[in-house]
Write a structure and sequence with these properties.
Glutaredoxin; alpha+beta; four-stranded mixed sheet; 4 strands
Length: about 130
């Protein structure tokens, strides 16, 4: 069993030591609650859909990783919300590779253009480091 595990992990380990691992420079953290009242739940569903469409339409899958935390399904949602000082559901933050919040918004003040500006800045910072 241990030998099989080592063989399965070997490509991952070798890739990491070769420096070939592509780490996405930006992370979008979205907090939602699928057990909330219908008005909040609808805003959560709409915002999640809007963010996923935004990532797809702007070809950001190599630049930004989306992490969705549903309070109903994930017990760590509260801790994540506290860590990033997130407000009410739904709420989104954009963090860079240093885990620094670069953009934050609730459903009512979500601005795709401002978020895109920050994603571009984060990507440019990663390019400068190379």
């Amino acid at each position: 069993m241990k030998n099989k595990l080592v063989l399965l992990l070997l490509p991952v380990i070798l890739t990491a030591f070769c420096g070939c691992v592509s780490v996405k420079p930006a992370k979008l953290v979205l907090a939602v609650d699928s057990s909330a009242c219908s008005c909040v739940k609808n805003r959560c569903v709409n915002m999640e859909s809007e963010v996923k469409d935004f990532i797809a339409q702007n070809s950001l899958s190599d630049t930004a990783e989306l992490k969705v935390y549903d309070n109903f399904k994930n017990t760590s949602t509260k801790a994540v919300m506290d860590k990033y000082q997130m407000g009410l559901y739904p709420y989104i933050v954009l963090v860079d590779k240093n885990d620094r919040v670069r953009y934050r918004a609730s459903a009512s003040d979500f601005n795709k253009e401002k978020m895109m500006e920050e994603i571009k800045l984060i990507a440019a910072e990663k390019a400068e480091v190379k």
